[in-house]
Amino acid sequence: MDRPLNATAASLLGFLHRGPMTGWDLVVVAQESIGGFWSLTQSQVYRELAAMERDGLIRAEKTGPRERKPFSLTEAGRSAFAEWLDREPGPENIRYPLLLTMVFGEYLAPERLAEMLRDHQQMHERQLASYLETAASHELDGNRFALATLDFGIYYERAVIEWFNNLPARLTRNT
Amino acid sequence: MDRPLNATAASLLGFLHRGPMTGWDLVVVAQESIGGFWSLTQSQVYRELAAMERDGLIRAEKTGPRERKPFSLTEAGRSAFAEWLDREPGPENIRYPLLLTMVFGEYLAPERLAEMLRDHQQMHERQLASYLETAASHELDGNRFALATLDFGIYYERAVIEWFNNLPARLTRNT
DNA sequence: ACGGACATGTAATAAGTTACATGATTAT
DNA sequence: ATAATCATGTAACTTATTACATGTCCGT
């Protein structure tokens, strides 16, 4: 007990500030609001919820229809969250397999690499479009913080796309 | 055996194309060349090396001074790598705790958030400077692929810094 | 009636982190 | 001589991924 809260668990506590939610709800909400820079899976959510219930940070409300089991914040949970939130957030980390592939590009058929680049560029363009749509929808207007993180995604995708566009010049060179 | 190769292990095989290296060497080389978008730890390296030796993908050369135990690629290793390299690289994933903190910014003292933002912006500025220095040093000129990934880092850091610079306008708004 | 979304959870495994133990060699 | 760096590795643990099992309720 009183293990330090990990970021994934903490984010669940954060969402529970909005009111009681089930694991399912949390997966959906998290996917939507932090999915762009913090991945989590269903399994993780249920596991963290179970652990946090054991630790008294959340409490199960009475089970609803379809075995819905909503959890609500306890005072302990609220303060554990506040403590976590105030801590120095760690450095970001990026893991991009495509770049790994590219570092070893000399061992790969150029057309194959080109194909991968095309695919990934397309994915990023779609992601950017989706972010822009969200931004235009005004559904986040109530929360300037959420909007700011969305903005991060937009800046990121734009930069990546620009990088893709300038790549051929970089890669076609002699050497 | 014949478990699918993971990206971390595969990258070690990639580096071994340059010639036999020890775990230590690999940690250093990997840190330098892919550290920006693929983190790995010493433990992981030694574990993957042990597993790959078991699987016959690499072979230990004779131990040198200081218990140095260099590994070299086997034919099996070479072809496992080629196979891995040709595969569809998965989507990138970013995990940025600062953004998590920001999403819940409404529960945090504004000055504390501002402080975190200042710190992180500084970290990104330093990172950018370091990338630019590497780019200016011409030490990567022999490898246009490595240069391209370095470029990714530069585009990324620039975008993030720009985002930081535009943040106050975003966050100071009413609401 | 039935397909699809809702909902919870477990099992098995892989990957990643942190800390430590041990010792050799080099440079000062 | 002693501190720093080189070098290998283990132990203990936490986090993350993938796949599966089970069942409910809603809409058509």
UniProtKB/TrEMBL annotation, chains A, B:
Residues 94-167 form the Transcription regulator PadR C-terminal domain. Pfam families: PadR, Vir_act_alpha_C. Signal peptide: none annotated. It comes from the Bacteria. Residues 12-83 form the Transcription regulator PadR N-terminal domain. Coiled coil: none annotated. This is PadR family transcriptional regulator.
